[in-house]
Amino acid sequence: MTALGGVLRFQDLGRPHAFVFDETYYAKDGLSLLEFGYEQGFVKKANDLILAGNGTIDPDWFTGEASYIVHPPVGKWLIAGGEAVFGATPFGWRFAVALFGTLTILVLARAVLRLTGSAVWATVAGLLLAIDGVAIVMSRTAVLDGFLTFFVVLAFALLLIDRDWARSGRTPGSWWRPWRLLAAVSLGLACGVKWSGLWFVAAFLVMTVLWDAARRHREGRSWLWSVVGDAVPTAITMLGIIVVVYLATWWGWFASDSAWDRNLDPTGGPVAALRSLGDYHSQMWGFHNNLSSEHSSQSSAFGWLVQARPTSFFYEGTATDCASGRCSEAVTALGNPLIWWAGCLALLHQLWRWVARRDWRSGAVLAGVAAGWLPWLLFPDRTIFAFYSVVVVPFVVAALTLSLSEFVRPDRHALVHERRRVVGVAAFLLACIALSAFFYPVWSAELIDYDAWSARMWLPTWV
Question: Which candidate, 455, 361, 363, 392, places its Cα nearest to that of 164?
Fold first, then answer.
């Protein structure tokens, strides 16, 4: 499934030969990081100059002045890695996000293997993530959210390993938990991509503490002692690592005297540098809180899970030899409708299992959905986009996989025979594959007839 996802993500990755949506910021920031270690401004028409170039970075593209940026640097450094190897080309700046998007499939499949104990259902989860449209588009576009998704899913998988490790009797207590500490490193990197990683820090810390508290309670300790006894060392160790890792991701800014606000505190030394970084973060916080400019593709978070308003990343209509006399080339961050709509039902099912059956697995995947989706409901006036939901996709897929596995589990009281239910799940998966094949052209900027593009825009809000 990882290989399949890789094919779908890397196939004609350099298409379209253009800056797609916010690539105009992040791809160029990556080039600037390669040259200077911090973000510089670009001259007018820099996009045209870069696309017309031979892939080599030209110093004349830069203004020489520091640029005010509003996201931490990890994702842009990863984009820069692809540009360092493959040049200042669309393939170069998309390589890293395609690689990490592909690896996310493997990590999720391994996490679901640990949740279910079944290689079959792990493969199903890998398949659903490999063929989903939001995941594909965000793995073919050099923006930050695909990296955020990888580090969040990796942290989730590492915490699952830690849970099993703690129940194996090998752990001496709450302080030395190597898998949990590695999860903290991954969460620190997630925050170093986008600040929305902080929601996962909160959700996953609560989740792992509750897992340990439940284990200790079963061993005879009170709930209060179980929670407090694990919460304190977990907070100290994990939050300490997360802060250190996050600060380390700004190493290029610390090392560059000309970076934005780098010498706001002129006294010099590490403390002054931290004060300058703190002021810079205050500016970034103000930007994010006051972002309310209108955008044609903005979408309320209330509609994300049902794909009410997907983000149009790129569209170009040309008059060529297409049957209708007009061709279309589009990149639309639209999820596979069958996966998402069935996923909404699965989330309700998992919520019921968590409340009524106390299924810890349901609570785990719901924690991921809650951290990636619920906070955005609190900002109805902020300019936000449906593609932010890419970080939710793995958890929706995990929820759907868990529900499908329950659907086919042997039950002598079931109204439908087990074999028929297995056939039904197989038919559902085949339908998902067929639907992804149908939508793939508008996920990957294939040149198709305008009527063919229009046939894929099922709802008026998708245009």
Answer: 361
DSSP secondary structure of 316-363: EEE-SSSTTS-EEEEEEE---HHHHHHHHHHHHHHHHHHHHS--HHHH
Rounded Cα gap, residues 280 and 348, in angstroms? 41
Q: Which residue has the higher pLDDT, 218 or 56?
A: 56
296 CB burial (10 A radius; 0-12, 13-18, 19+) = exposed
What confidence tens digit (pLDDT) does each residue in 304-354 have?
999 999 999 999 988 777 888 899 999 999 999 999 999 999 999 999 999
> In which domain, by residue range, is 379 found?
2-263+294-307+331-462
Q: Select from 271, 340, 294 the least CA-distant residue to 131.
A: 340
Cα 385 to Cα 376: distance, rounded to the nearest angstrom: 10
Assigned domain for 209 exists: yes
**φ and ψ at 447, to 5 degrees?**
-80, 115
> H or E element: which one contains 42?
strand 40-42
DSSP structural state of residue 89: S
Contact 161, 220 (CB under 8 A): no
Amino acid present at 211: W
Which residue type is seen at 226? Answer: S
CA distance 93 to 246: 23
- Decide: helix, strand or coil at residue 314: strand
Is 77 a member of any domain? yes
Q: Look at residue 360 and tell me if it is in a domain.
A: yes
Tell me, letter by letter, the H, E, C secondary structure of 360-400: HHHHHHHHHHHHHHHHHHHCCCCCCCHHHHHHCHHHHHHHH
| Sheet with strand 447-449: strands edge to edge | 311-318, 327-333, 447-449
**Two structure tokens written together for 371:** 């951290």
Tell me, what's the pLDDT at 39? 93
Mean of pLDDT values over 364-384:
93
How many domains are there within the chain? Answer: 1
Give the tokens for residue 245. Answer: 């890792």
- Residue 401 burial class via C-beta count within 10 angstroms: exposed 0-12, middle 13-18, buried 19 and up: buried
Amino acid sitting at position 125: A
66: enclosing H helix or E strand = strand 62-66
Name the token pair of 363. 């609570």
In 3D space, the residue among 419, 393, 396 whose CA is nearest the CA of residue 407 turns out to be 419
Look at residue 435 and tell me if it is in a domain. Answer: yes
Cα angle vertex 331, ends 57, 382, to 5°? 90
Residues 10/98, Cβ–Cβ less than 8 Å: yes
Quickly count: other Cβ atoms within 10 Å of residue 60's Cβ.
9
